[in-house]
């Protein structure tokens, strides 16, 4: 008569070694690109506000993050429905790469954000039609 909920178990081991970031911000510039292997992807900038200080002395600062998108469905959605001004919540994998100059000195660390999924909080405003 009643169906009991069955709990399913996974035989895979949970992944403990990952770096992930979740960001809430406003989309800036969207740039379509192509990899060395001619794989299309896009990058976009995301403006994220943070607050500095306490109580009355709080000031707002904006951090800009560059995010890469490789999933074809997400790329298509960005190209057809999103633009500058859209507000998103983004889940991204984070990786860092250390690069040195030709002499092996002056090492710089580059942080890469690869979008895994996103949710649209607010779509961008549509441009108003030109008045005649």
UniProtKB/TrEMBL annotation:
InterPro entries: NA-bd_OB-fold (IPR012340), Primosome_PriB/ssb (IPR000424). It comes from Metschnikowia bicuspidata. Keywords: DNA-binding. This is Nucleic acid-binding protein. Pfam families: SSB. The keyword Isomerase does not apply. One of its GO terms (molecular function) is single-stranded DNA binding.
């Amino acid at each position: 008569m009643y169906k009991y909920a069955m709990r399913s178990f996974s035989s895979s081991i949970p992944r403990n070694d990952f770096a992930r970031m979740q960001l809430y911000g406003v989309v800036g510039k969207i740039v379509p690109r192509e990899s060395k292997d001619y794989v299309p992807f896009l990058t976009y900038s995301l403006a994220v506000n943070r607050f500095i200080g306490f109580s009355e002395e709080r000031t707002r600062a904006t951090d800009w993050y560059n995010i890469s998108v490789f999933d074809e469905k997400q790329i298509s959605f960005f190209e057809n429905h999103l633009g500058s001004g859209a507000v998103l919540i983004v889940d991204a994998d984070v990786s860092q790469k250390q690069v040195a100059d030709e002499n092996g000195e002056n090492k710089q660390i580059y942080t890469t954000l690869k979008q895994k999924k996103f949710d649209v909080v607010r779509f961008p405003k549509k441009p108003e039609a030109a008045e005649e």
